[in-house]
Amino acid sequence: MSAYPIPPRVYPTMRPNQVLSMLGTVVSLFHNFPVLVRSTNELVERHIAYGVELAHYDLFFTLLPKVLQAELGDRWDAATASAWKRVGVLVCTMAKGVYSKVAANAPPTLE
């Protein structure tokens, strides 16, 4: 059992190969920042529809370097760690912006 449980409504939509593919896409778009921003924002909007919570982004990008380091072994170095940290900060920052925008446009709820 995971130390970080995945909400039941999110788990069926997770696909590890898609996650890795999307990470590759994000990295490949660093040379074209406007397309990177648009693609990432669209991805985050889809995630919101799937029930992904904003906190999952921080969790994912906290765990990802540990997994990559374990898999890459000696090929993992300070430059690689720094690059993945920057990717995580960028994606999490964009995600926060999308979540804020969605929340601002959400109809009020009765409590």
UniProtKB/TrEMBL annotation:
One of its GO terms (molecular function) is heme binding. It holds the Pfam family Globin. InterPro entries: Globin (IPR000971), Globin-like_sf (IPR009050), Globin/Proto (IPR012292). Gene3D superfamilies: Globins (1.10.490.10). Residues 17-93 form the Globin domain. This is Globin domain-containing protein. It comes from Tetrabaena socialis. The lineage of its organism: Eukaryota, Viridiplantae, Chlorophyta, core chlorophytes, Chlorophyceae.
